[in-house]
Amino acid sequence: MKNVYNDIILPAYKEHKHLFAILIDPDKCSEERLSSIKTAMGEYTPDMILVGGSLVMGSTSDAVLTCQKFFPKTPVVLFPGDETQLTPIADAVMVLSLLSGRNPEYLIGQHVRASVKIKQMGLQTIPTGYILIDGGNITSVQYISNTMPIPREKTDIAVATALASEQLGHKMVYLEGGSGALKHVPLEMIKAVRKSITIPLIVGGGLKNAEDIRNVFDAGADIVVVGSAIERDPEIAKQICTHY
């Protein structure tokens, strides 16, 4: 099994290659949905599939298995909202620290409860600073985590938070507008954060089409994550792959 961070993410970052990830909500994951995405993408495949959500009622394991069935060569990385969304059959797990908020549950509480499970499962871990940015509406992650996002115009706070993430030893920084956000992370904010840190930068939330993806990559994102837009129209996944 490849090490997702050392063998895929880090080399791409060092070579200035962009990566595209699809976010799959386990509660909306079915063979029909994955088949439609696979068909729409044709010869193309995402670089990664993230599985998880702020609130998940269904089986994460079933969702991972379905993703592996349709995209057998694509690494599946857990993007857990809490410790219940762990499964040993994934390739890795993002250990997310919600740095934009001040809720201790998402800064250390969930991590302590999950730590032994992660070790026992033998999951590769990718420590990630998770920074929620105002996307123009109240998103699930904001509501569930009971934290406030960084205002869109507060680029200086986003930069300082990203720097703190790197200094704490995180391997990636994730700027997130939130699933279903009306607006993606501001381009000027992405540019400023990219200039300030020396680790891979992920951007997700509110990305609706190939043009959004291109603009976000041009601003400095190393990895983009798209979920809701592909749920609505699987063809967008192919459009993204043919343009980035």
The oligomeric state is single chain
| Main sheet makeup | 8 strands, parallel, barrel
- Secondary structure tally: strands: 8
Instruction: Give helix and strand order, one letter per element, not per position.
Output: HEHEHEEHEHHEHEHEHH
> Span from first to last CA?
27 Å
Quick summary of this structure?
The chain is of the alpha/beta class and 244 residues long. It has 10 helices and 8 strands. Helix 8 links the parallel strand 7 and strand 8.
Give the helix/strand layout.
Layout: H1 4-14, E1 19-24, H2 31-41, E2 48-51, H3 60-70, E3 76-78, E4 92-98, H4 104-121, E5 124-132, H5 140-145, H6 155-167, E6 172-176, H7 187-196, E7 201-204, H8 210-219, E8 223-226, H9 228-232, H10 235-241
Parallel strand pairs: 1-2, 1-8, 2-3, 3-4, 4-5, 5-6, 6-7, 7-8
Brief descriptors of the model:
244 residues, alpha/beta, eight-stranded parallel β-barrel, 8 strands, 42% helix, globular
Describe this structure in words.
It is a single chain. The chain is of the alpha/beta class. Helix content is 42%, strand content 17%. The chain has ten helices and eight strands. It has an eight-stranded parallel β-barrel, surrounded by seven helices. α4 links the parallel β4 and β5. The longest helix has 18 residues. The two termini are 27 Å apart.
